[in-house]
Give the backbone structure.
Amino acid sequence: QVQLVESGGGLVQPGGSLRLSCSASKAYSTNFVISWYRQGPGKQRELAASLTSKNTTNVPESMQGRFTISRDNDKKTAYLQMSSLNPEDTATYYCNLRWFGQDFWGQGTQVTVSS
């Protein structure tokens, strides 16, 4: 079992930046996909960014150039760097780890983009 804890959310003005963190209770280094999903008010959960153990990334087109996913060398912390935020980015952001066929989720961190 792996516990994931997100942090770094908050209120930011349009055009601003935030960095979200996802801390895992265990280090993961092989056969994983670490992802950030988000769910806005009245919307379905959607992928924001993902990173595989082969170091490939996937960022949806609407977030390309603004969202970057990375992982710390400690192999326990993943990040989502977000820039040029707009009100449509307002959502709860969730960290997901798919590791050896099992899915683990964090509790989410709220990001609100508003002036």
Residues 18 and 82 are 5 Å apart (CA to CA).
